[in-house]
Design a protein that fits this description.
It contains 8 helices and no strands. The protein is mainly alpha-helical and 158 residues long.
């Protein structure tokens, strides 16, 4: 789908307004695909591709992207647990890459770590709300975040 490629490219514009609109665009395409019993894997794979780059992207930009992705992740991955292992891996890699500088007090890394954790918690809640089980990979990632011992991250899980 050419439209998905254009939406994905626009996601890297470094403009939060454009990114927010792209997120809505992906949600719109997802809605149409679901409405027509279409295959939503292209949207899921696009979101995963975007997420996989977040541990390597400009931290000043990434810290905000997690907030924009939160709702998109809840909508895209809300009806199955097939992607849980992939998502768990991405969340954990991002948390690990942000934690060193975040623990040292760098505000951008700390905000990225916090927002990533908020998105993970939001996804966790979506799984529970839909009566799915957390798989071992997701449980491991959540336990990793909790084991970091950072008060601000722990309070999210209480």
């Amino acid at each position: 789908m050419e439209a998905i490629g254009k939406l994905k490219d626009a996601f890297w514009s470094n403009d939060e307004k454009v990114i927010s609109e792209v997120s809505l665009g992906l949600q719109g395409v997802l809605y149409i695909l679901k409405l027509n019993n279409g295959n939503t894997d292209v949207i899921k794979d696009t979101v995963l591709e975007i997420m996989q780059t977040l541990q390597y992207s400009d931290i000043k930009y990434v810290k905000s992207i997690w907030n924009i992705l939160k709702q998109l992740i809840r909508r895209v991955f809300n009806e199955d647990d097939i992607y849980q292992a992939k998502l768990a891996e991405i969340f954990e890699k991002c948390m690990r890459s942000y934690s060193y500088q975040g623990k040292k007090g760098d505000k951008y890394y700390f905000e990225a770590m916090y927002n990533c954790n908020m998105t993970l918690k939001s996804y966790h809640d979506q799984i529970i709300e839909n009566d799915f089980s957390l798989n071992a990979d997701m449980k491991k990632t959540i336990n990793y975040v909790k084991s970091m011992g950072i008060f601000e991250l722990l309070t999210i899980w209480e």
